[in-house]
Amino acid sequence: MAGNIFGDVFRVTTFGESHGAGLGCVIDGVPPGMLLSSEDIQKDLDRRKPGQSEVTTPRKESDRAEILSGVFEGKTTGTPLAILIRNNDQRSQDYSNIQDFFRPGHADYTFLSKFGIRDHRGGGRSSGRETAARVAAGAVARKFLAARNISVTAYTLALGGISVPSVDFSEIEKNPVRAPHAAVAQEMVRKIIEARDAGDSVGGIVEAQIIGLPAGLGDPVFDKLEAKLAHAVLSVGSIKGIEFGSGFAAAGMYGSQHNDEVVVQNGRPSTVHNFAGGIVGGISNGDAVVFRAAVKPTSSIASRQNAVNRSMQVSQIEIKGRHDPCLCPRMVPVIEAMAALVIADAILIQKTIA
Amino acid sequence: MAGNIFGDVFRVTTFGESHGAGLGCVIDGVPPGMLLSSEDIQKDLDRRKPGQSEVTTPRKESDRAEILSGVFEGKTTGTPLAILIRNNDQRSQDYSNIQDFFRPGHADYTFLSKFGIRDHRGGGRSSGRETAARVAAGAVARKFLAARNISVTAYTLALGGISVPSVDFSEIEKNPVRAPHAAVAQEMVRKIIEARDAGDSVGGIVEAQIIGLPAGLGDPVFDKLEAKLAHAVLSVGSIKGIEFGSGFAAAGMYGSQHNDEVVVQNGRPSTVHNFAGGIVGGISNGDAVVFRAAVKPTSSIASRQNAVNRSMQVSQIEIKGRHDPCLCPRMVPVIEAMAALVIADAILIQKTIA
Amino acid sequence: MAGNIFGDVFRVTTFGESHGAGLGCVIDGVPPGMLLSSEDIQKDLDRRKPGQSEVTTPRKESDRAEILSGVFEGKTTGTPLAILIRNNDQRSQDYSNIQDFFRPGHADYTFLSKFGIRDHRGGGRSSGRETAARVAAGAVARKFLAARNISVTAYTLALGGISVPSVDFSEIEKNPVRAPHAAVAQEMVRKIIEARDAGDSVGGIVEAQIIGLPAGLGDPVFDKLEAKLAHAVLSVGSIKGIEFGSGFAAAGMYGSQHNDEVVVQNGRPSTVHNFAGGIVGGISNGDAVVFRAAVKPTSSIASRQNAVNRSMQVSQIEIKGRHDPCLCPRMVPVIEAMAALVIADAILIQKTIA
Amino acid sequence: MAGNIFGDVFRVTTFGESHGAGLGCVIDGVPPGMLLSSEDIQKDLDRRKPGQSEVTTPRKESDRAEILSGVFEGKTTGTPLAILIRNNDQRSQDYSNIQDFFRPGHADYTFLSKFGIRDHRGGGRSSGRETAARVAAGAVARKFLAARNISVTAYTLALGGISVPSVDFSEIEKNPVRAPHAAVAQEMVRKIIEARDAGDSVGGIVEAQIIGLPAGLGDPVFDKLEAKLAHAVLSVGSIKGIEFGSGFAAAGMYGSQHNDEVVVQNGRPSTVHNFAGGIVGGISNGDAVVFRAAVKPTSSIASRQNAVNRSMQVSQIEIKGRHDPCLCPRMVPVIEAMAALVIADAILIQKTIA
To answer: Which of A303, B297, C257, D102 is the most buried (most CB within 10 A)?
Structure first.
């Protein structure tokens, strides 16, 4: 209802604001007997945390995950798994000058319209920091998937108009933009630094591949696997679109092309180009699930810009704070987390059927 | 769980297959006291039904909606509103020759993988006919929205590589492709007929505009308004992607551009280009909500093509049946219905907050 | 939300009023591959239908179940199973004289308070007739349970102050009150006829036993098996209470008594008296689940009585219609149905854990 | 699904075990703008905490509530309200001798059957300590209700066979058993001490009254107000039954009696004896909602008793730990909490209708 709970069986509740005591999640429905330690969670949190490279915000947050419940002697017990991440580097004063302004591109006005009250310190619940709880929950889902040989890998496919010509998974974590291509990654870094130095920001595209899925996951009507992945990914701030397989290119294709060349692979029907993106009729077909998400350029930029204030007048503001000049590098683990949550849930849902 | 229920407060359950007794829906949570007749539903069903023009399938289905419950003396009572649409024009024999084949682009193999059993007659639950129940439910939502001066209007923006240069709502229902531009509509019709005569099909893009929304709808975290609309739209068969406002173009923009020129309009903050697509931080801002959905070309084409059979061998099949050479014209009311369901739900959810 | 959907995995939506076109249900989450025919459903509907004996209302309703979807070639397909029961014997005019009165013991005033609108014909959605849809859905659940050797058996334990001294399952369906004891059943019949002839009605207690459950069903916190059974049973009109195993008698016992004599039975821990009622800590222990429901005397009685009208004045009314002088006999299949729905759901939920 | 989430709009997720880092709750759907401090929560926690009197367990737990999120400048923000209670007085060693035994009356065997793994320290998630999180959440609901002049008051109605002859709310918090009658309270205290000294425990009945409810809360079918209250109350450990208004006594009444003497009170229909317990047809009628819950005697008793071990042999064990000789006194705030959660939820749900 109020939208802080996600999933049907592997069900995550998140809480917390950017400038309060902390944030975290409770996962109900984690199967019992799974090995889990706080290191499993920390690993992904570290990939999301600020200050990790020259192209991310210089804010420092340790983002330490504490498991509060649901694990006994190193194993999940089947009871709710609660994870807490305390806030520490809070510069609330950075936000005092914008208390009376609706920042362009931010949820300031809409949040106030909805709730009639607003924690103006860094966006509160609308802050990107909220995604730390998603990543923590996603890390548990990823561990669950790893035990079934299912991997979720995301990367920066394009950024500021620059695209990678090919994808090499082994490059992704070697460069700060998380691009799957060494040379293009360097160009992308330069693009970000250039934008940052100009007091600006850039957008990009994050692509994800889910490999190892069995055929038969997802539901045929309202909960098609694409529908749930789209819900998951578009629930992340700053995402403007999603496409699966052929995506928007399908709009310009003929049926004879899109149906593709049919082959039998690993004992099941497949196609040469995977235009379906691994999902047909809402249900996985055993091929890699492939989707792309459009990431808008960061709304918080250093340049002075016009903004509307509470008296509904336009005047210039300067956003202090410390912000990412491009969201893609830190978005990669967030999108992986959201996709992992959907897939873990789909696997558990499928157990009720077969 | 099994994905045949949609929505939180305005909650729709659908049922039915293409070749059984019929299909329909039950809506729980329709507010009491709303005027409603079966004509309100029929109007939208007629826009979706097959055989309505030269560019749709020649199948004839009367698609008459019967309201089974929830209306008394012309008004909704607050109890579940059940609607039944009987099937009548069923040519199950058209499907007998493909019983042992997995049709390219269809859910045949994935459905069987999931359920271990399959109604092969026209796709059963995976048939596009399933959307009739969505349109019936959506018609009730649209009536609810109309009383609040909210309209949902979809149209064919592009088709087979042809796009409209501008949007004129008054043209949409005047041409069989439901394009918002008279001249381009004629080109699109020719494109469809050309493809059909070649035993092929074409894809396209459907755009939708939701006008009249108050600011404050949608939730800030998992149930962002985009997330729920994306879930709704990608739950429709043959949709490969969705984008809001600037969409994928945002990936190539700078923050200073995307933040746009800020203005005050109707006493609230707005922007010149509505790159946000009417939603910021997951919550409506009072501007038009704008999204585009990529529609793949129809999978059922008349030309002979390769397919895999149950023995996992590739051989040629011919799909008889009678199919739409382009899904866009009939997809328009389906997308309107799904969007209307999300918005009606969001309005009722917001009543629990303010 | 609006409370017409029940269950988590085996999820039932019901619809319909006593005097509209009909009523029915849609079950989402029925596992595929289960044999099912409309006769399976009819059998239980016939046990619930009016006019079946001298002690029930003389109203005649054929209550024929039509399966609209979800079954193909005699087996469930995993898609929603919709069942429709048309209304036919409607004497709406019986209710015209009470249109402006709030009948004692009925939901007339509360329904109007909630919805601001009311279908006064026989209670509309608040009519006992609404339970026909529950029985139809419950019949599907019972079929599912039967395949797992789980039975749900309810019977009239007490009625108008008369109790059975012992329980013989084989007697239940042999007498019109569904008491598990031949001689006491006759006394109960006399008691009902006596009350009816005096223009009055009597209450009673229905007990249910669920036999064959494995240990491990139910959840440890909010969804304890007792909690869900209590929810299910108290959602039936006219039920005033429920107790499990020792029930209210536990309030007067010592811990040393209630812990009971511990034994090992069928290779698992058990107790001599089953004070636990087959559930410990919210989870089934493998013993029979036993509960009792208190059934109030029918509110609709033939004698003239005082009632409040819409002008908030008290005056005498006479309720015409045709009503059961005791609800227990027809309540038995309804309680079985509700219990079966909870257990089928619990079994499917448990599949997500182990 | 896994049953650690409760409610539809005012939705509570709880987590935590008796012997881990701590326990707590996240409430999604708390309306914004409500005054709330940790003292509001502490007040109720103190009424539940162990060691508060001579008749409760001597265990000492400070049970300090920390609000982690959802409150800004003393007011709720509409975002998730997370509350954490750290564990501190943990004597895990008390449980080492029973690690291999299934304690009589406890969830040891059933928990293991369900999850295949078990935290044996004090019951883990099945511990009564789990209710602290419910009381914390309930305190927020009670604050919400207080602002609407709705009160939820529970008390010990009977205990070890002793019942109060009349109810005086002002006495409840003046005696350690929370009985609404000074003299009888003293008898009850003696009864508890006597049982404790004999290494035994006693059961009782807790009654609750919800006063100030408007007519129109609750839903007519599956989510009748009794059904949700029953679900809530029977989800608390050690509760064996619930009854509303006339309750089980209704089973022996005539319809003419149970319909009661009809009167007009406060401008609405009412009755002299409130046999309905304030709810008709599942919807509140404006009278006090009255229910009684049967509380079994504490399963953990000091006397030696037989138990089954993991090898399925019966032998004698001694339960060390420190336990309440009667659960009623500390059960009172738990039942109030659960009832408050249901009512707060019902009020918010009703906002979607009228």
So the answer is: B297
Q: How far apart (Å, rounded) are the C-alpha atoms in residues B190 and B161?
A: 12
pLDDT of residue A56: 84
Q: Which domain holds residue A91?
A: 2-351
Please name the residue of chain B whose CA is at the shortest distance from the CA of residue D347.
B352
Question: Do the Cβ atoms of B243 and A245 come within 8 Å?
Answer: no
Inter-chain residue contact B69 with C9, CB threshold 8 Å: no
Of all residues in chain A, the one with the smallest CA distance to C221 is A79
The residue of chain C with its CA nearest to that of A350 is: C352
Whole-angstrom distance, CA of residue D337 vs CA of residue D176: 19
Q: Could you give the dihedral angle defined by the CA atoms of residues B49, B52, B58 and B63, in that order, rounded to the nearest 10 degrees?
A: 30
Q: Are C134 and C337 in contact (CB under 8 A)?
A: yes
Most distant CA pair in chain B, distance: 66
In this prediction the ipTM stands at 0.97
pLDDT per position as a tens digit, B154-163: 999 999 999 9
**Quick count: other Cβ atoms within 10 Å of Cβ B29?**
24
Beta bridge partners of B206: B156, B293
Write out residues 309-348 of A within 8 Å (CB-CB) of B: 312-314
Residues 6+ apart with CB under 8 A from C168: C180, C181, C182
The pLDDT-based confidence of B59 (bands split at 50, 70, 90) is confident
Give CA–CA dist C256/A250, Å, rounded. Answer: 72
Q: Are B279 and B289 in contact (CB under 8 A)?
A: yes
Find residue A24's DSSP bridge partners: A15, A84
Q: Can you list the pairs that A257-262 forms with residues at least 24 positions away whose Cβ atoms lie under 8 Å?
A: A257/B297, A258/B105, A258/B203, A258/B296, A258/B297, A258/B299, A259/B104, A259/B105, A259/B299, A259/B301, A259/B305, A260/B104, A261/B306, A262/B104, A262/B305, A262/B306, A262/B307, A262/B308, A262/B314
State the smallest CA–CA distance between residue D297 and chain A in angstroms. Answer: 26
Q: What's the CA gap between D26 and A27, in Å, rounded?
A: 11
CB contact under 8 A, B84 and C77: no
Do residues B36 and B75 touch, judged by C-beta distance below 8 A? yes
> In A, residues 4-43, which contact C (CB 8 Å cutoff)?
9, 29, 31-32
Of A211, A239, C250, which is closest to residue B226 (Cα–Cα)? A239
Residues B346 and B317 sit within 8 Å (Cβ to Cβ):
no
Length, in residues, of chain C: 354
Which chains have at least 3 CB atom pairs separated by less than 8 Å from chain A? Answer: B, C, D
The total of other beta-carbon atoms located within 10 Å of residue C177's CB is 26
pTM beyond 0.90, yes or no: yes
Q: CA C6, CA C338: separation in Å to the nearest integer?
A: 10
Domain total for chain A?
A: 1
In the 8-state DSSP scheme, what is residue A208? E
In whole angstroms, what is the distance from residue A230 CA to residue A241 CA? 9
Longest dimension (CA), chain D: 66
Counting Cα atoms < 13 Å in the Cβ hemisphere of A37 gives 4
Contact list in A for residue C353 (CB cut-off 8 A) is 31-32, 78
Q: What is the CATH classification number for the domain harbouring A266? A: 3.60.150.10
A205, A157 contact by CB (below 8 A)? yes
Tokens 């229909």 -> residue: D269
Residue D189 vs residues A48, B350, D192, D193, D301: alpha-carbon distances, Å? 57, 49, 5, 6, 17
A69 in contact with C at a CB cutoff of 8 Å? no
Query: CA torsion C38→C41→C47→C50, rounded to 10°?
Result: -70
Question: Quick one: closest CA in D to B220, which residue?
Answer: D79
For the stretch C118-137, pLDDT in tens is 777 767 899 999 999 999 99
How close is the nearest chain D Cα to the Cα of B308, in Å? 38
B228-286 confidence digits (pLDDT tens): 999 999 999 999 999 999 999 999 999 999 999 999 999 999 999 999 999 999 999 99
